[in-house]
Design brief:
alpha+beta; Methylamine Dehydrogenase, Chain H; 6-stranded mixed β-sheet; 24% strand; nucleus; metal-binding; Znf_C2H2_type; zinc ion binding; C2H2-type domain-containing protein
């Protein structure tokens, strides 16, 4: 494929040597890569003359086929066309002969031009006398590589009009007979299925009619290309298979009816046609109970009928219930048919209850003792893997031993069957989640704080200035609009329907149905979103947001001397809708703020004013701790330019060790101050007295502070044996922290002993980022792992590693979340265990898996649900069509090296590449976002052609979930826009509960309002 290397033409002498000696040393593997000897002068001159006479290759495909049919030896082939002209000759002949061509030496058919050229040069088989007939460029039916269809029987002209392809499989005598029968006046009308806008003339001769019909009629499969593809999908399966099989007898490959992709086998073609450019609702679906085939949109209706039919059959069964109960389970176990059943069976004139008979005895009584019974072997009663029970089967093939001697069990990826598989177990799972969350709340609220945190008293922060003085207050967001379906139109400017937001302002958008999304513009690329564990007295949630100052370089020119800003917003929930407004902006003088993390501790009483303790990571390497109460900042404003900006002193300042001050060197008086490495990630332990804080610095070390000891001398966890620097930290449960490394490795350390207790480095499981939900799970989520093989574009997934096991090992649970190119962040809701993930593809995926168990779970659940909550597609303006055509033509016309530039050619504009928009100002004028809220938008993608250097404004870098009864997910990224969506799975809807007859009650009032939606 692609380019072919020009081959040195062989002379007649070389061809003779090869022909006479098949085992010549020139064709051996040892001499194939050796340098070739230069040809004699006379041979070189003859080759130059041949090449000079053939500067251009002007043969048509039919001429190539006629030229190829005259070849009979390798010498004729090499002397006819030198170099690349040989492959061009073969390529033209292949096109003229329908895609396949025989070797003129051995008559072996090949379908590739380069493959046939290489085969001819190596082929030594003498051509047989009976197979020397050259191929004729008449019709593609002459390719006798496949078995022809048996001649059909035509009974009426209507049959021939409905299926004209039957004409192709009858002989000429029968064709004339049919024409004379149906057109006795010799005025023949073409009965082929014509294409739109095509008409055939009236024929007045049987001979001309036969020639016309032979060329005009095509196999029935080709008549459905284009607008009739949907009609083809609705046809009977056997009829579709026959049409494809008939078309494959005359064509080596068939195109897809929608996209034109070529297939050489009917099974792959039919499977692709059923799914190509088809919405999720029209995708084929097969019932896993009865095998009925339909579409996904009708799957729920069929499941209702399937369940009802099963109940009717069970109620109406009489004597046949004995045979129906004789399944594999009964025969293998030897148990009774129906324990406690009242039915009886008569055996040898004696009535016996079924409960006293085994399946084997009942079957012998029915079929008679003279017939033998083949009983399947009993299955081995081996223990199954269970996370809730902490059981890892040692004999399983999915169990492996890690380098440190621990057992590792990896589950299979749970199949997501249109969000229906195992959904009846989801309400029970949510009940266990709520029980586990209540237990955690009671235990954590009773825990005390360490003395350093108790010394921090509530305070009131004074306003130093208004938000009008902030550097980003005058910025405007990129345009965005909400869409129901993909817009394939081209625009030469940003559409007028797009909205824009000023900094520190928000808006709520609505779909055609009752579905909403709240959008807020934060003034720059969003780095961190963190929701406070406690709310305001009016149930407003406090959301802390950290942004970058620059869209191109993110951190700006001098991050250590820049001002650090943390935005605080107030989030209000109203059923399925939400609103958000800015509260105040926190300013610090310790350089740029790179991360913010709340201590996940609920307040001990309802009268407590505490909202939470906030840890802030700075570019100067200091960790700042603030206490925020609902009385800390009392003023607020509705005008984005009048938001209060406060600059309080940190309640605690945690410094890193300073080894550079102990090297004995003296610093100059006017020298710039030296700072430790910036802090990029924070983890705060909620157990015990909340005294352990772990932060990862830019040098790749994990700094561990114990607030009960000296805060000036923390322990730096930095091992010389690490293959890469640490990137993120997250506390699992208790005193174990998970450290993820840039080279996709995760280690779990005990902060009390600084010892590694677990290591996970498996490809596509371990990633460079680890997140946790300590309220529910004793494990961590891993993302930013290796790409999955065979996906286009490449995908990355999310895995959950459960570290709590009674056996000396751990479990790995692959989740359904997969993002194109990169998965940036993962967060789990503490209310319903929904895992939210965001990625570079601009999607927010919500999933839940029954294997993610809590302390309240007694069994594992086998369901896996997935939902697309948000899809953002980046769009760009297009150049006018005239300019695009001129540019395309100029790129196709390659100037010759020998041509001299004409007068005035130096003044002509140079050909330019497609322009990219990499700054915020350029993005405002040339890019915009299309927002999709419907779950069917998972197949939508941003325009990637010629835009690899554009600013990835659709990328979502961080995600967070709240702690209220009604869960919401917050996400944001490169565009500086924060999106807020409900963090729920469709399994909570009453429709699913009614479908599976599962009662599900909840004490949550907002859920009751969602029935109308």
């Amino acid at each position: 494929m692609g380019r072919t290397r020009p081959q040195v033409p062989q002379t007649s002498k070389t061809a003779a040597e090869i022909e006479g000696s098949p085992k010549s040393p020139t064709s051996t593997r040892a001499t194939r890569g050796a340098p070739k000897r230069s040809a004699p002068p006379e041979e070189t001159e003859s080759h130059d003359d041949a090449s000079s006479t053939m500067q251009e290759f002007n043969l048509t495909n039919d001429a190539c086929l006629r030229t190829y049919s005259t070849l009979s030896s390798l010498q004729d082939f090499t002397n006819a066309f030198p170099g690349n002209f040989q492959e061009k000759l073969i390529r033209g002949a292949l096109k003229a002969n329908g895609g396949a061509l025989p070797c003129f030496l051995c008559q072996k058919f090949l379908i590739s031009s380069s493959g046939l050229v290489l085969h001819i040069r190596k082929c030594r088989g003498p051509p047989s006398a009976e197979s020397m007939e050259p191929p004729k460029p008449t019709r593609q039916q002459l390719i006798a590589r496949r078995r022809l269809i048996t001649a059909p029987t035509i009974t009426s002209f209507e049959q021939l009009k409905e299926e004209p392809s039957l004409w192709l499989y009858i002989d000429d005598d029968q064709k004339i007979k049919l024409l004379k029968e149906y057109f006795p006046d010799e005025r023949i009308e073409c009965f082929a299925i014509s294409k739109p806008g095509q008409s055939c003339p009236l024929l007045t001769s049987y001979k001309d009619a036969i020639e016309h019909l032979d060329s005009c009629i095509q196999p029935m499969y080709f008549t459905y290309i284009g607008d009739r593809a949907a009609e083809f999908r609705k046809m009977d399966k056997k009829l579709r298979s026959r049409y494809v099989r008939e078309a494959l007898t005359t064509h080596l490959q068939l195109p897809c009816l929608e996209c034109g992709r070529l297939f050489g086998h009917r099974y792959g073609l039919l499977y692709h046609v059923d799914r190509c450019n088809v919405s999720d609702e029209e995708m084929p679906w097969k019932c896993y109970r009865c095998g009925y085939s339909t579409t996904r949109s009708l799957s729920c209706d069929h499941l209702r009928q399937c369940w009802s039919k099963r109940d009717v059959l069970v109620a109406e069964e009489d004597v046949s219930n004995v045979m129906g109960a004789l399944g594999d389970v009964n025969l293998r176990s030897g148990k009774s048919i129906l324990k406690g059943a009242n039915e009886t069976i008569t055996i040898n004139g004696e009535a016996k209850p079924l409960s006293e008979l085994s399946a084997k005895e009942a079957l012998e009584a029915i079929i008679g003792p003279e017939n033998s019974i083949v009983v399947p072997k009993k299955r081995r009663s081996t223990a199954r893997a269970s996370i809730s029970a902490g059981v890892i089967p040692s004999s399983s093939t999915r169990m492996s031993i890690t380098g440190d001697g621990k057992m590792r069990f990896r589950f299979r990826k749970a199949d997501v069957r249109a969000g229906v598989s195992g959904i009846s177990e989801y309400p029970k799972y949510v009940e266990n989640i709520k029980k586990a969350h209540d237990i955690w709340m009671q235990e954590t609220a009773a825990l005390p704080y360490c003395s350093r945190l108790l010394d921090i008293k509530p305070s009131v922060w004074k306003t130093t200035c208004k938000s009008a003085r902030l550097p980003f207050i005058s910025k405007e967001s990129v345009g965005f609009r909400i869409r129901e379906s993909e817009d394939k139109n081209s625009y030469q400017e940003v559409p007028q329907s797009c909205q824009r937001l000023q900094a520190l302002s928000s808006v709520e958008l609505k779909r055609e149905i009752h579905d909403y999304v709240t959008i807020a513009y934060c003034g720059g690329p969003i780095n961190t979103i963190s929701v406070a564990p406690n709310a305001m007295p009016n149930d407003e949630e406090v959301v802390a947001i950290v942004t970058y100052p620059c869209e191109t370089t993110l951190v700006g020119k001098d991050m250590k001397n820049s001002q650090g800003l943390v935005q605080f917003w107030l989030h209000t929930i109203d059923g399925l809708r939400s609103k958000i407004r800015p509260w105040f902006v926190l300013k610090s003088n310790f350089g740029l703020i790179l991360n913010a993390h709340w201590l996940d501790r609920p307040k001990s009483s309802e009268n407590d004013t505490l909202i939470g303790f906030l840890a802030v990571a700075t570019a100067q390497g200091a960790l700042l701790i603030y206490r925020l109460d609902n009385t800390t900042v009392s003023t607020t404003a509705s005008d984005p330019k009048k938001i209060p900006v406060v600059e309080p002193e940190p309640s605690l300042i945690l410094q890193q060790p300073k080894p550079w001050l102990t090297d004995g060197r003296t610093r100059e008086e006017n020298a710039e101050p030296q700072y430790p490495p910036p802090l990029t990630s924070i983890a705060w332990c909620t157990r015990d007295e909340a005294q352990y804080i772990v932060a990862v610095n830019a040098a790749g070390g994990a700094v561990i502070w114990d607030l009960q000891r000296s805060v000036d001398a923390p322990y730096v966890l930095l091992d010389s044996g690490w293959c890469s620097p640490a990137a993120h930290a997250a506390f699992i449960c208790g005193f174990e922290v998970a450290l993820s490394f840039r080279e996709r490795l995760i280690r779990v350390y005990d902060v009390r002993t600084y010892q590694c207790v677990l290591e996970e480095s498996t490809v596509r499981t371990a990633g460079s980022r680890a997140t946790t939900q300590p309220r529910l799970f004793s494990g961590f989520f891993s993302c930013q792992s290796e790409y999955f093989v065979g996906t286009d574009p490449p995908n990355t997934g999310v895995s959950f590693i459960c570290t709590d096991s009674k056996a000396d090992g751990f479990f790995v649970v692959p989740l359904a979340n997969r993002h194109e190119l990169m998965t940036w962040d993962v967060s789990a809701s503490s209310q319903n265990a929904v895992i939210a993930s965001c990625g570079l593809d601009g999607k927010v995926l919500l999933s839940t898996n029954g294997r993610l168990v809590t302390i309240a779970n007694t069994v594992d659940f086998g369901f896996s649900l997935l939902k697309t909550a948000l899809t953002i597609v980046r769009r760009r303006i297009t150049e006018p069509e005239e300019e695009s055509l001129k540019e395309l033509v100029s790129k196709m016309e390659t100037p010759q090296e020998t041509e001299q530039p004409a007068d005035g050619a130096a003044d002509q504009p140079k050909r330019r590449a497609t322009r990219s928009y990499a700054t915020h100002e350029e993005s405002l004028q040339n890019l915009w976002l299309d927002i999709f809220l419907n779950p069917d938008s998972k197949n939508l993608r941003s325009q990637r052609k010629l835009t690899s250097l554009d600013l990835r404004i659709e990328s979502l870098n961080c995600v967070a979930t709240n702690y209220r009864t009604r869960p919401f997910v917050f996400t944001g990224g490169q565009a500086g826009l924060m999106f807020i969506r409900p963090c729920v799975i469709d399994g909570e809807s009453p429709l699913i509960n009614e479908l599976y007859h599962v009662p599900f009650e909840t004490n949550e009032k907002p859920l009751g309002k969602s029935k109308k939606a």
